[in-house]
Write a structure and sequence with these properties.
The chain is an alpha/beta fold. The chain is built from nine helices and eleven strands.
Amino acid sequence: MTETILKVSDLKKSYGDLHVLAGIDFELNKGEVVCVIGPSGSGKSTLLRCLNMLELPDAGRIELHGNEIYGGGKPKDLDVLRREVGMVFQQFNLFPHMSAKGNVTIAQDKVRNRKKKDCDARSIELLSEVGLADKIDEYPDRMSGGQQQRVAIARALAMDPEVMLFDEVTSALDPELVKGVLDVMRNLAESGMTMACVTHEMGFAREVGDRVIFMDGGVVVEQGDPDQVLGNPQEKRTKEFLGLVLSH
């Protein structure tokens, strides 16, 4: 039986007269990888930020394991949400005065209240998993963008979240650095991590995604199996977007 972890109903978000999310319905099931695609300004990143309550929606409902996290205009159990739903951003946002290990350790200490030796052991384990065993004591300014992004992924994973949100995590990287980050995400998907990824990497979406969602104008225009949405889209707007994206 499919277990729904995150459920969004009629989610709305506006900035003044700009309706960024115009009534989104969305579910994320355990072990599922959902790739969200669409043009700039379609509401993709805002959706992710609302899922993690970094942006407060204007209306709608968000449930985590059937428990209301947001509804009636108010957030609830934010600490639970932030522990269970990790997020990695386009910008790495690492602490420049801390080593890779320090960046991965700090939240474990402050939020999970783990003992120092346990934090250190978990940090070393995760940095090794993302291919940075030789960069544990390195500082961000001595690492490439791709390496910094992998530290950011390790930092989010250190909280042992049930869901990982990725917001265009390769878009700020030089092309030759993208593969290393996508490989880490592939490995996560293969391990069974539940993931929602806003991405412009169509090859990744087709290969790794269980479902692709195409957004435009703050609504879900089309969603389904990656081969269907990317290879045989049904909606005119989806066809137009993919015609531009896949021709490059």
